[in-house]
Amino acid sequence: MSETLPEGVERREIDGRKRLATRGEAVYGEPTDGEWRAWDPDRSKLGAMIELGMDVGLSGGDRVLYLGAASGTTVSHVADFAGPTYAVEFAARPARDLLSVADSRPRLFPLLKDARKPETYAHVVEAGLDAVVQDVATRGQARVARLNRRFLADDGRLLLSVKARSEDVTRGPEAVFEEVLEELEEEYEVLERSRLDDYHDDHLGVVASPR
Amino acid sequence: MKESEGWFRDVEPGDLEGARAAITDGRADEPRDWPVAAVETGFAADTEEYYDALHGATLAATRAAVAEREAADDRRLIHMVRAMDDCRRLSNELAERLAEWGSSVDEGGTGVEYARTVVAGESGPADPAVRSLADRVVDLADEADRLEDDVERLAASVTPNLAALAGPVLAARLCSLAGGLETLAKKPSGTVQVLGAEDALFAHLRGQATSPKHGVIYTHDAVRGTRPEDRGSAARALAGKLSIAARIDHYSGDRRPELEADLAERIETIQARAGDGPEGDGHE
Q: Which range is the signal sequence, renumbered to this chain (chain B) (predicted)?
């Protein structure tokens, strides 16, 4: 299969091996090569999905809503190659780090908001986005994806990372994933799914499009 | 009523405070193509200008909201650890009363564990008043446990470095004694060293006692695990690292795992003095 990385994402030799990389100001001490900085799939679910060859449907310059931006590790790479990028994070502490990531990226818009309450940021985040990236460690991950469907264009993509342990620590991950996917499929068509275990234990990567 | 107005509707271009408030407090049921709407209403000349304004507005709004939320979390942590200590103290006091009462009838027992056996019907008199009191003791002890779980979670987010170094409960107690993370961060480490030993400190200042070597940080293994003659040094070293951790947590907030290694190394050096004979000065 021929891989199509988004424009602005390349596999480059950094620190002696081929790694995903984007161009931008370094933010978390990641290795760099000139203006390119390594995108570590061990620290990023979206990075792992791309590293594993999933077709995330991003082309570069995309308009993106990122839910669960945390301290901005992954969203910094997204903002490097995407267009306008809205970063929603609920916790104050990591959001402080997110601010410094956004300071040097003029098309990255940080928002201290609850991803379960899209009505508190729908007056800021635009409609018709190319992608919603979701990485929220909370119960009800399928519900969050459904609630935020309103921001996606009809041909947009949901790039979801499901954390099994956030839903239910007592059941096996596969059972949890099936339940999450079942609920997700009420509003999305699942195009691709893959366990991310090589990089993130008990996580499932999902690419879906709105029904 | 359906709301569908963009954040910029009542904001004059260049009014950052108005923009901040609109981002923070506004809402809409459905998103729209805001960049286009902003150009149509004349808020921005083109979408690039709109995005520039949005960047400034979201940074200002998020910065202010983060500061506000952190201050609120700080207050919450202090109330929580105080409530935890109160619940623990009250349940222990009542457990003593209960044991006294209960053991006038049978072999008795002590503490909250005894109260649990009474609640379970395994010991104690049949007197409903005794059983009811035991219920209260166990409820309070359970509440203290729940609060301790909450303290652990919240301390790790409010003050991650201090919690990693001191343990979450001691970190919360230090914030509580200082009156907040900010005041803790601004105190010299000598003050951090004796927080919680105010009685002893004032006795010393009145000339009635030697200066206290440590306050609440006594509960930390670095102090407790050091022989008595070196505890002053251990407490001073620990207080120094805790002060640094509190300052990082207040002013920057990023995690510095190397602090833990620094502290461990320092304490190891101090504790190694014990092996160097009675007048050993350590090997620094």
A: none
